[in-house]
Amino acid sequence: MRSTLPRTRLAIVCTSIAALTLSAALSGCSPADRIAAVSDLAAPTAAPTPSAGISADVGPLTTLAGAATPTPRSSSGQVASGVALSAASSGDVPYVPGDAGEHQWPGDTAETEPITHYRGDRTITATYRVIGNGVSLRDGWFRGAGSWSQRTGEVDTVTSSSSFKVGGQAPAFMYRHRIYDNGKPTDFWVGTKFSSPAYGQNSDMCDVYRGDPVNGGTWAWVSPYQCSWENIRGYNPEPVFTIKKVEVVTNTADAAALINRYCNDADAQRHCRYFAAGTSFARGPQKVVGSVVLNHKTEGKKTIKWETKESTETSVGVEITLGAKIGEIFKAELTTKVDRTWGLEHTFGEDTEIDLREDSAQWIEFAPMNLVAIGAWVIDTGSKTVMVPQVTSQSPVQDGGLLVIKACPADEFDKATTTCRVEPWEKVVQQ
C-alpha cells in the first residue's frame, strides 16, 4: 500500500542526521530506558551493519516484560520458560523482570496441609530430569496443594532423573529448585507446579527465575536453561519435568542459516519461536528518492514523483518478509505490543512540489521512521534446542518519516553520487 505523507510547515534542517547501526543506536539510550537484557548480551561475531541504519535520535526502549515466554498451558507439554544467553554461572546474565501475573511463583496456588489417606486416592507419579553436562537441581523446596494426603519419595536433588509420588483425592504440588552447573550454584532457580483436580484437566507450570522465587526472585525472560512438562494427562498421571541447558549461537552466519532453515519451513511454528524483549522507534538514514532536477536559468515550480519500498531487516542479515512463515512468527509476537501502525513492508511515496533554484541541482531525500525491536530466536532442530540472542530488527512505521528537499550549486554537484562538495541548502517538508 502506498502512503502519502501529510504536509507540514517548512523548516530549515541545521544539522545532518548521523546513521548508526542498530546495536549502536540502542546502546545510546539512557540507562533508565534500557533493559539489562540489551546491554549485557554477547554480541554476535562479525555482526553486519544493516543497510538501513538508525539515526542518533532513538527513543526510549519499551520493555516487553511478560511477552517473551508462552503462557503455561494445561496439556501442551511445551516449553514454559528459559532461553539461553550466556554462561550459567555469570553474574552478568541478563534478564527482564517478569510481570506480576502469569510468571509469579507460586502465584495463586495455595499451600495446603495433608489430609487422611483413603484407599481410593489417586496418585501423581512425577519424574524430574536434567539434560546437559554438569547441570543439576538442588536445594529443593516442596509444598503440597489441593486435596493431598501423602508424599512418597522426593526430588530435592536431581543429577539425572528422579521420581516421587503425591497421593490424594485431588493432589497437587509445587516445587522449587536452585540450578547448579558443574557443581556450582548459579543465579537461577526453577519453580514448578502440577495439579490433578477431581474434575477437569490436569495442569502444569514451570518458569525460570533470577534468584529464589520464594524470596523475591524475579522471572527471567532469558536464561541458560529451558524447562518443560510432558505426559501430563491421565487419572493417575505420570508427568515428566525436564530442564536442560540450551546451546547459544553467536556466529552471524550460523545464526542466519539456522533462522532461514527452521523459521521458514512448513513446520516453522513448531520449530521456531521469537521472544521480544523491548521496542523503540528510530529514524532510518536519509536516502535519495525520485529524480534529480538540474536547473540553470528557469524559475518556477516543479513536481518530483517519488516512491520507495522499506522492509524488515535484522542484525544477523535475515530479511523478514510478507507471506513467509518467519514473518508470521515475528508479527504475532509484536502486533499486540506496539501502539503505532507498522508492517513488515511498506511503500512510501508522493508527488512533492519544489521551488526551482537557478544554477542548482535539486533532489529529495527520505528517511523512514522504524520500529526497532530486540529479542531472541529459539529454534528446535529436532536433535537440540539452540538460541540466537540479541537480534535487532527494524520495520517501517507507516505514519512517520523525514522528507527533505536539498539544493546544491550546479558546479559543486556530483551527479554520479548525488552529493554536493559544499554544504547543500536544505528544507524539511515532513518530519
Structural class: mainly beta
Tell me the number of strands.
Answer: 28
| Mean pLDDT over the full residue set | 77
What ranges have pLDDT less than 50 throughout 5 or more consecutive residues? 1-100
- How is the biggest beta sheet arranged? 6 strands, mixed
Q: Count the domains.
A: 2
Task: Please give the radius of gyration in angstroms.
Answer: 28 Å
Query: Could you give the distance between the termini?
Result: 20 Å
How big a fraction of the residues is strand? 35-45%
Number of DSSP helices? 5
Q: Overall 3D geometry?
A: elongated
Q: Give the proportion of residues in helices.
A: under 10%
Give the SSE map.
Elements: E1 2-3, E2 19-20, H1 22-27, H2 36-39, E3 54-55, E4 62-63, E5 79-81, E6 122-131, E7 135-147, E8 150-152, E9 161-168, E10 170-181, E11 184-195, E12 203-210, E13 218-219, E14 225-230, E15 240-245, E16 247-248, H3 252-262, H4 268-271, E17 272-283, E18 287-295, E19 301-311, E20 313-314, H5 325-334, E21 345-355, E22 360-367, E23 369-380, E24 385-396, E25 402-409, E26 413-414, E27 419-420, E28 425-430
Parallel strand pairs: 1-21, 6-15, 16-24
Antiparallel strand pairs: 2-3, 4-17, 5-14, 6-9, 7-10, 8-9, 10-11, 11-12, 12-13, 14-15, 17-23, 18-22, 19-21, 20-24, 22-25, 23-24, 25-28, 26-27
